[in-house]
């Protein structure tokens, strides 16, 4: 019996390595010329798996990529849990790519869409540069951005309204009698960092509280960096009675520092996070946090992308997800569940959260 074509024979016919053949046949990112040679050799030899045959016929891979800043961040995990089932129900596989918030890597992902290794892309960049906007405008496959980009960019966009979210948190703290409300942020050159810094100042102004630079500290959107920032803040402003943290990971770092310093939460210092990840509910004390609807944003992004794949000519859409405040023990001493406080309405502006 004659042996059928194998990856080895395809590699010899195409003049490429066995690894290159494997990458092409499994739909992984590969140079366009290599894809052409491998698929041509496979077709000549009669080695055409069903998925490759469909791709040859209609230029679809039935794969979608999700590029995120940090695959270990619970925010993105929550998004994946909603994105994947929506895509799976429509017959698509989900590929995950962690960029480490590296702009060059994100641009490579966007420019690589021309190689057609996926049919579409969902991405959530922490920074949006002019290069991002140019690459988005020139993208050769549908893209949905979870975050905030100018509407004239012409891509589908799912936003969080953390402006309203910060206001909900500060209103809550003010209502508890807190007046020395400090803010611990991530990098201000990121979309969420810039938006939350502006929202903090606006909320203070609305409450009639003065802005004090000594009550603001910048770190990064991670637990260890959050702890470092809180230590620096307490060293110069020991009289703070509340901490507004730009995400839950920073807030967890704050709880670590306050515990070691012998500061009681919430009696001495109330603490609020943002994102309302699962970590907020298992922290000790349980963390009050602003939910920016990570699951809802993920689901909306997947639905927008599927609609775009079917209707590529429609105008770009912007979806803004309303925030909610989940009140727990770190502010109000609630120890038997959470109280969800809905946002005051959808904002006109929004941005992505890490």
UniProtKB/TrEMBL annotation:
Gene3D superfamilies: 3.40.50.2300, lambda repressor-like DNA-binding domains (1.10.260.40). Residues 330-354 are annotated as: Disordered. One of its GO terms (molecular function) is DNA binding. Pfam families: LacI, Peripla_BP_3. The keyword Iron does not apply. This is LacI family DNA-binding transcriptional regulator. It comes from Microtetraspora glauca. Transmembrane segments: none annotated.
């Amino acid at each position: 019996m004659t042996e059928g074509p194998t990856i080895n024979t395809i590699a010899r016919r195409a003049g490429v390595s066995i690894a290159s053949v494997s990458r092409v046949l499994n739909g992984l990112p590969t140079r366009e010329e290599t894809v052409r040679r491998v698929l041509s050799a496979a077709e000549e030899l009669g080695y055409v798996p069903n998925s490759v045959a469909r791709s040859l016929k209609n230029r679809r891979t039935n794969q979608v990529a999700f590029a995120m800043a940090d695959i270990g961040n619970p925010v993105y995990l929550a998004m994946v849990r909603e994105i994947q089932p929506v895509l799976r129900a429509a017959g698509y596989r989900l590929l995950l790519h962690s960029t480490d918030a590296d702009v060059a890597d994100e641009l490579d992902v966007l420019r690589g869409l021309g190689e057609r290794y996926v049919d579409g892309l969902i991405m959530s960049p922490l920074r949006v540069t002019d290069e991002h906007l140019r690459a988005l405008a020139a993208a050769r496959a549908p893209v949905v951005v979870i975050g905030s980009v100018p509407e004239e960019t012409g891509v589908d966009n799912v936003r969080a309204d953390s402006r309203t979210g910060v206001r909900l948190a500060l209103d809550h703290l003010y209502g508890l009698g807190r007046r020395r409300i400090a803010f611990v942020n991530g990098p201000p050159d990121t979309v969420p960092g810039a938006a939350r810094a502006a929202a903090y100042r606006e909320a203070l102004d609305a409450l009639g509280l003065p802005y004090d630079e000594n009550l603001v500290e910048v770190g990064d959107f991670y637990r260890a960096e959050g702890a470092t920032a809180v230590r620096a803040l307490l060293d110069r402003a020991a009289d703070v009675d509340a901490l507004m943290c730009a995400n839950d990971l920073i807030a967890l770092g704050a709880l670590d520092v306050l515990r070691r310093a012998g500061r009681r939460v919430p009696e001495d210092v109330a603490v609020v996070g943002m994102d309302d990840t699962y970590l907020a509910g298992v922290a000790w004390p349980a963390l009050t946090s602003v939910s920016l609807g990570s699951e809802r944003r993920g689901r909306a992004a997947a639905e927008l992308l599927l609609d775009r794949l079917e209707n590529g000519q429609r105008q770009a859409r912007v979806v803004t997800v309303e925030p909610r405040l989940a009140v727990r023990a770190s502010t109000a001493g609630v120890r038997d569940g959470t109280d969800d406080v809905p946002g005051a309405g959808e904002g006109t502006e929004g941005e992505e959260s890490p």
